[in-house]
Amino acid sequence: MSDERSGGGGQPVPSTTEPARVVRPDPPRGRALIAQWSFASAVAVLLLAAIFVLQNTADVNIELLFWTVTMPLAAALLLSLAVGGLIASLIALVRQHQYRRALARRPPST
């Protein structure tokens, strides 16, 4: 009984089949990469925000014109951050509208 894969001198013949290759998906590109970085950044910001809120629980008095409000320092800072972000977003929206309107007025280029 001789092995079918052995040569004449009792030496095994190397296999002609290639070993199984592990197929790995391509690394993310374009929008998928942006989505991954955005998600990781959002998680990091949320963790930092949670630490910030836990460390800044002291009450502060906020006076604006005729009103006086007492709230935790973290809440006051996060509220001011949210209002600032809202104002910045509204300004960006107005500028984007102005830009698109200016583009629509331009004659088409040939």
Question: How would you describe this protein?
Answer:
With 110 residues, the chain is mainly alpha-helical. The protein has a domain at 31-105. 53% of the residues lie in helices and 11% in strands. It contains two helices and two strands. It has helices spanning 31-55, 73-105, and strands spanning 59-64, 67-72.
Mean pLDDT: 82
Strand content: 5-15%
Bin the helical content: 40-55%
Strand order in space, largest sheet: 1-2
The counted number of beta strands is 2
Please trace the helix and strand order, writing H or E for each element.
Answer: HEEH
Radius of gyration: 32 Å
Q: How would you sum up the major sheet?
A: 2 strands, antiparallel
Q: What structural category arises from helix and sheet content?
A: mainly alpha
Measured between the Cα atoms of the first and last residue, the distance is 82 Å
Helix count equals: 2
**Uncertain parts:** none
The gross shape turns out to be: flat
